Automatic annotation (TrEMBL):
Its cofactor is Zn(2+). Keywords: Activator, DNA damage, DNA repair, Methyltransferase, Transcription, Transcription regulation, Transferase. The keyword Methyltransferase applies. Residues 102-180 form the HTH araC/xylS-type domain. Gene3D superfamilies: DNA Methylphosphotriester Repair Domain (3.40.10.10), Homeodomain-like (1.10.10.60), Methylated DNA-protein cysteine methyltransferase domain (3.30.160.70), Winged helix-like DNA-binding domain superfamily/Winged helix DNA-binding domain (1.10.10.10). The keyword Kinase does not apply. PANTHER family: BIFUNCTIONAL TRANSCRIPTIONAL ACTIVATOR_DNA REPAIR ENZYME ADA, METHYLATED-DNA--PROTEIN-CYSTEINE METHYLTRANSFERASE. It comes from the Bacteria. CDD domains: ATase (cd06445). This is Bifunctional transcriptional activator/DNA repair enzyme AdaA. Pfam families: Ada_Zn_binding, DNA_binding_1, HTH_18. It catalyses: a 6-O-methyl-2'-deoxyguanosine in DNA + L-cysteinyl-[protein] = S-methyl-L-cysteinyl-[protein] + a 2'-deoxyguanosine in DNA; a 4-O-methyl-thymidine in DNA + L-cysteinyl-[protein] = a thymidine in DNA + S-methyl-L-cysteinyl-[protein]. PROSITE patterns: HTH_ARAC_FAMILY_2 (PS01124), MGMT (PS00374).
Amino acid sequence: MTMTSKFNSAEAVIRNRPLGSTHTSHIDEDTAWKQLLDRDGRGEFFYAVTTTGVFCRPDCKSRTPLRTNVRFFATQEQARTAGYRACMRCKPEAPRQASPVARMCAYLEREIDRPVRLETLGRLVGMSPFSVQRIFKKAMGVSPAEYQRAMRAHGLRSQLREGGTDVTTAIYEAGYGSASRAYETQPLGMTPGRFLAGGRGEKIGFATGETTQTGVPGWVIVAATQRGICWLALADTCEAAEASLRDEFPAAEIVANPKLGDMVETVLKRMQGEKQAVDLPLDLRGTAFQLRVWKVLQEIPEGVTKTYGQLAAEMGMPKSTRAVARACATNRVSVLVPCHRVVGASGSLTGYRWGVERKRELLKKEGARLA
Ligand SMILES: [Zn+2]
């Protein structure tokens, strides 16, 4: 599926909301007005100007109307039904073209196993190889070749085969709203490409704590972006814990942040089997498939274990046991995304990213019955 068609189908979903129900209530008008003022293309609405009788996309280049003259619509059909005509400038009825960078990303993802020349990308979007390199790097933080390498390194190729997903879907479902917008803007302060390249340009704070008091020997590191915990690892020593963070996000700016000490305390309490009311914010980013697996993991109650096969079956993908196992193995947030509650078909502990002994201790604390 190409980037363009993905985007269009996403729009179609939004636009197919029932007309008769006059549900403009789901538009938060304050947010919409702010997006209109910013000419923010991410706005999922159309606005009409009562004085001109014209309706526009939020990122139209026309003069900003007075707030009192503006009406918001969820769909262009609603705007038309209300008697407004489409703006000649922003052409709200024309399907939106995917950006050149989005088109290049889609192409690179399709050709993931094969080096792609800048000339080829240039022909695709009608630009010189030099411009291709420049605009791609500016938008994605990495060169086209590095982008492909990052995609390969993160196993997205095998997910294309086994998980039944594609990178575009993955990014779309990861909460970027739509793939082309994910590529054009940086809603999280970082493009997907930058994230895949190891957190380039992102600031990640961390704090550590000793876990031995919980019965699990060693140390824990809790690392967080502004959005939430992005890395929670267990290790033998404080140094090893910190090194694991730097390995996972080699390009991020990593700084100790004592304010995260509270999060460490909460994690230690969880490890001691104390049920906490506090839900710590998580910043999980991965492919759609990984995110689905991690979500299912969070639904396994304490004291319960499941097999990889059970999880796969619950997700409606009974043939994807191996892919599920790999998604568990690539979990970045131990304990809180309890991949330790997944065991082998025979009830054996199988592997654990942070050591099988720690898995055993965590399960024992939770009162799980072990094979
Ligand atoms: Zn317009």
